[in-house]
Amino acid sequence: MNINKLKADPRMPKHIAFIIDGNGRWAKKRHLIRSVGHKAGFENLKKQIQFVQDLGIKNLSMYCFSCENWKRPQDEVDYLMQLFNEMLDEFKAEYLNKDIRVIISGDMDDERLPKIVREKAKEIVELTKNKTGFIVNACINYGGRQEILKVTNELIKEGVKVVDEATFNSHLYTADMLPLDFIIRTSGEERTSNFLMWQSAYSEWYFPKSLWPSFSKKDLVKALKIYMNRERRFGGVKK
Ligand code: IPE
Ligand code: IPE
Ligand code: MG
Questions:
Q1: Ligand nearest to the CA of 38
Q2: pLDDT of residue 2
């Protein structure tokens, strides 16, 4: 794997996203309970966040828990919350002395979230808000429709009569992030499941078969090469 060659390629995306999917199936295949799959998925996520930085990609979004995931059994939800708690601790321990900004997309006032998760999420966002290097955006208790409604309601409150794209953008969780270039959804499912709906209007999508815990660095390199060979036209014509 020649990372330096890849890094230097001008076609590299600046903002990529992972829709983390297949943790449950990964565990099932090994006759393990679903939480073991989530734990393995979480370990892989840490590895991938570092690799994305090593590749020089500026922004990373990750779909960790959707507004619809509350429908899952309580013990699974509780386990995921515990993992988010751990993830926030690790962000704090590792990122405060680095040029890394953490953004949390999703409703952090929702009382279904453990208080500790809400507090830690708000704290890390506040502590890193002035950093300008790598941005990691964790989507927790997130829904694309809910985000669009959040923006709309904020604009109504401001008394705005007419809205343009730039104003709308400035109210999104991702306001300070670069345009979303590339979305990878593991496990072979080919749908958005309410992920970054506004932001993904012109993103490239890729649906590898790998289940998230076994999505490797090599798989990411393969995905990036596929992305770089696509022609993005944004409604224009072939050059
Ligand atoms: C993704 O894996 C993790 C979250 C949604 C938090 P899943 O738990 O959806 O795994 P599958 O789709 O059941 O295999
Ligand atoms: C989407 O995965 C949500 C996250 C990855 C956090 P799901 O597994 O919840 O999506 P569906 O239910 O298959 O659409
Ligand atoms: Mg799933």
A1: 1
A2: 85
